[in-house]
Task: inverse folding
């Protein structure tokens, strides 16, 4: 594949139409309401177009789609390819290349087949069966405490327990597994190395899990994935290994980061926390709040990249075959055409619309699980600590590196207080 031209450098025959600004400065709104660093290449300014050229940390030139409607369109448009985007010569945001065998790296029909097999293990019923365990763990983690680091002592063990139950990791191995995953993914260290000993050890462990699941499938998702098959046969060992690694990468650190970001935003808006903590119908309140938190503080600010298979026009911009496009999931949630008061955090918002789980064929497989986990974690936290307060000023929180795929605070020390009139720090 040829190296794509720089976005904005139109081909001689290209009608690179002047780009009109969006009605409001929604990119600025998104940035100024966010706590925590964002990648430098996300554009700022008073007027920003729906599609803008950016230079990624790799030095590659990429089109960034910022509008909600156009973002949704890109994510469902089969003129864009994920498989082409993981090719070694494709423009990339991050220096590391995803596994080409992973579900996220496939196009139809390979993606359709694998996704159909995997969907069977992620049914709403399968997720509902996990809810009691998540609640029980959340309660246990908070019980008897007045101070807690909500990242290391709440979000991480809760997400580790959840993903372990999904994968069928034996109870006795949960702590070991969580430690390996933390080091491999660099959650609390904030350091991610593609080739690390922890990553190798985790891969070995995953291989053992798969071997065991093939021998004794049990009632968990890994068991059903290990035995899943269709008319073209079962999942191959490579497909299954790539899938389990993906579930861990995509499912663990996202859930940790999303809970951290949600709580930071709520601590930043104590009146919103009080609304949630004192709601007459906690479950109804937290379901609406979850969608608003996903919109307002999305843990994954950008989609994976897609590469155009052909020359095409996106909005008012001509994209050439081989060029890469990324949807800013963060900015899609702040599009003033979708939410006129997008910069306001409102946990009672009836229909918070967002692209935080993506859209279309690659839409997040674990969305239902992630929603359940976030809802239960917030419900239990609100029940245990209606007067939740940060123990450090919010501006001095430490964060994961801005260029990481997944955002989130590295630590979130709070006081768990039963007094809902608690005050704000920082
Ligand atoms: C708040 C938490 C989460 C967020 C914000 C999130 C976000 C996303 C997004 C944006 C995508 C699509 C990316 C794209 O198309 O460019 C995605 C895909 C995916 N997610 Fe999640 N995710 C979360 C949790 C989870 C969990 C808990 C699991 C599983 C246990 C999971 C498994 C996956 C998988 C397997 C895919 C790939 C689907 C495909 O390519 O067909 N995610 N996620």
Result:
């Amino acid at each position: 594949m040829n190296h794509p031209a720089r976005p904005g450098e139109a081909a001689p025959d290209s009608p690179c139409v002047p780009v009109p600004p969006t009605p409001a400065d929604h990119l600025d709104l998104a940035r100024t309401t966010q706590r925590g660093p964002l990648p430098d290449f996300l554009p700022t300014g008073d007027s920003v177009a729906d599609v803008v050229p950016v230079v990624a940390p790799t030095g590659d030139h990429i089109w960034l789609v910022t509008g909600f409607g156009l973002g949704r369109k890109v994510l469902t448009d089969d003129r864009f390819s994920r498989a082409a985007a993981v090719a070694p010569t494709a423009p990339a945001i991050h220096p590391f290349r995803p596994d080409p065998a992973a579900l996220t790296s496939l196009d139809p029909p390979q993606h359709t087949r694998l996704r159909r097999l995997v969907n069977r293990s992620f049914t709403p019923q399968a997720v509902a069966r996990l809810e009691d365990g998540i609640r029980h763990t959340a309660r246990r983690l908070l019980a008897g405490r007045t101070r807690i680091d909500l990242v290391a002592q709440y979000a991480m063990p809760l997400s580790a327990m959840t993903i372990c139950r999904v994968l069928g990791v034996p109870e006795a191995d949960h702590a070991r597994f969580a430690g390996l995953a933390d080091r491999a993914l660099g959650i609390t260290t904030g350091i991610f190395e593609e080739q690390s000993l922890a990553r190798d050890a985790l891969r070995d462990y995953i291989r053992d899990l798969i071997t065991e699941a093939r021998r004794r499938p049990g009632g968990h998702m890994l068991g059903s994935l290990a035995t899943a098959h269709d008319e073209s046969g079962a999942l191959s060992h490579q497909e299954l290994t790539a899938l389990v690694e993906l579930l861990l990468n995509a499912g663990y650190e996202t859930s940790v980061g999303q809970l951290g970001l949600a709580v930071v935003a709520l601590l930043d808006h104590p009146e919103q926390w009080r609304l949630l903590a004192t709601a007459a119908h906690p479950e109804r309140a937290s379901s609406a709040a979850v969608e608003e938190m996903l919109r307002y503080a999305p843990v994954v600010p950008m989609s994976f990249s897609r590469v155009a298979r052909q020359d095409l026009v996106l909005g008012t911009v001509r994209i050439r075959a081989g060029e890469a496009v990324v949807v800013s999931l963060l900015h899609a949630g702040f599009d003033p055409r979708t939410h006129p008061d997008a910069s306001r955090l409102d946990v009672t918002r009836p229909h918070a619309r967002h692209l935080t789980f993506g859209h279309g064929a690659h839409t997040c497989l674990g969305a239902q699980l992630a929603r359940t986990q976030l809802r239960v974690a917030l419900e239990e936290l609100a029940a245990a600590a209606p007067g939740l307060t940060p123990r450090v000023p919010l501006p001095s929180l430490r964060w994961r590196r801005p260029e990481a795929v997944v955002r989130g605070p590295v630590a979130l020390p709070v006081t768990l207080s039963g007094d809902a009139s608690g005050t704000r720090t920082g």
User: Anything to note?
Assistant: The chain is about 40% helix and 10% strand. Residues 103-104, 115, 166, 246-247, 250-251, 254-255, 258, 299-300, 303-304, 329, 356-358, 362, 364-366, 369-370 surround protoporphyrin IX containing FE (CB under 6 Å). The chain has one domain: 26-415.
